[in-house]
Write a structure and sequence with these properties.
The protein has 10 helices and 10 strands. The protein is of the alpha/beta class and 343 residues long. It folds into 2 domains: 2-217, Glycosidases (TIM Barrel), CATH 3.20.20; 232-341, no CATH class.
């Protein structure tokens, strides 16, 4: 199984609509945006990019910082300060991670020791995963002691096209081990089309959704959902769309109040392990009710409209089920709140 992601900067905003929701529907499951560089640069589009990824329902969202050689720990501190200023919600977002961007520039080439110092400081200051974007072509075997997953870059012919069509495959040379480890992620194109956006940097991960979750978060993201589905926000949108009879695949703009409430419950649950089991049971019950509701909706549609007694009875049952579903959600919120208040 191969999963795909998109890393962005302000340059992408001049190339297309930056419709991250379209990218999510197109299959992208992780997203990063440039936050800053060196001692003073701040990317002007960072806040908009990560907000769109969050609102699109992408579970794994991160910031990348382009390191310069001087004062790597100071740059790590600046990265955190910028995130707190521009996207303070990151601290409560379970799938947040960091990407250290280490490259050979015409005027600078951060040495391995600086790369490690940056990663170590960022990880210790935030408790989040830091992935080292540092290519085999530039760093070779010199990062053996970095102690972080590696993110390689190897474009090959760098063909244009849909990101899945230009992916060179799981056996591609870009997955070759270096610095004592096989790269966890691979940037394989700078000209890919993702969703409605042309000329994108496309990235791949070889493994399941749960494998990616373990890599980027240690397996704690969406602890109440452990299958390889696209994560807890999918459940949020599915519940929300059924209750309001909307399209669950649309996911454009801000979630409505119900979706926000369920998301808040899930976020609180992740922050308190004692609440996860109870919330998981409630979500399973809710998903069962959603399946029942969907079946009833199909039955009503097949009946050709509310013109006879069986259809009217089905509509009445549907209304009762909606009430029961809302009750289940309320019970889930109450039980989670009690668990969170417990010592």
């Amino acid at each position: 199984m191969t999963l795909f992601g998109w890393d962005t900067s302000h340059y992408d905003w001049d190339r297309g609509p930056m419709d991250v929701a379209a990218a999510r529907r197109d299959g992208v499951v992780f997203f990063t945006a440039k936050i800053g560089e060196g001692s003073s640069n701040t990317d002007p589009r960072f806040a908009d990019g990560v907000r769109r990824a969050r609102d699109a329902g992408i579970e794994f969202v991160g910031a990348y910082y382009v390191l310069h050689s001087a004062n790597p720990t100071g740059q790590a501190d600046r990265c955190v300060a910028l995130a707190d200023k521009l996207a303070p919600w990151w601290r409560d977002y379970p799938g947040w991670f960091w990407q250290g961007d280490f490259e050979h520039w015409p005027d600078d080439f951060p040495p391995p020791a600086a790369c490690k110092a940056f990663c170590d400081r960022l990880a210790s200051a935030t408790g989040r995963q830091v992935v080292a974007y540092a290519s085999r072509g530039q760093y070779g075997s010199t990062l053996a002691g970095i102690g972080r997953p590696l993110w390689n870059a190897d474009y090959g012919v760098d063909a244009s096209g849909h990101y899945t069509n230009v992916y060179p495959g799981d056996g591609y040379r870009g997955w070759t081990a270096y610095s004592g480890q096989v790269p966890a992620l691979l940037q394989y194109s700078s000209k890919a089309r993702i969703g409605t956006q042309p000329t994108c940097d496309a990235n791949a991960f070889r493994g399941s959704y749960e494998d990616l979750r373990k890599l980027l978060t240690g397996g704690t993201v969406a602890g109440c959902l452990t299958s390889d589905d696209p994560g807890w926000l999918d459940t949020v949108f599915r519940v929300d769309s059924i209750l309001r009879m909307t399209d669950p695949t649309a996911r454009t703009g801000e979630p409505n109040d119900l979706a926000k409430a369920i998301r808040a419950i899930a976020t609180q649950a992740v922050a308190n392990g004692s609440a996860l089991t109870a919330l998981n049971a409630k979500i399973d019950q809710t998903n069962t009710k959603i399946d029942q509701l969907a079946a009833k909706i199909d039955e009503i549609a097949a009946a050709g409209g509310p013109s006879n007694a069986p259809v009217l009875a089905a509509i009445s049952d549907l209304a009762d089920d909606v009430k029961s579903l809302r009750g289940a959600l309320g019970e889930g919120a109450a039980s989670t709140a009690q668990a969170l208040e417990a010592p």
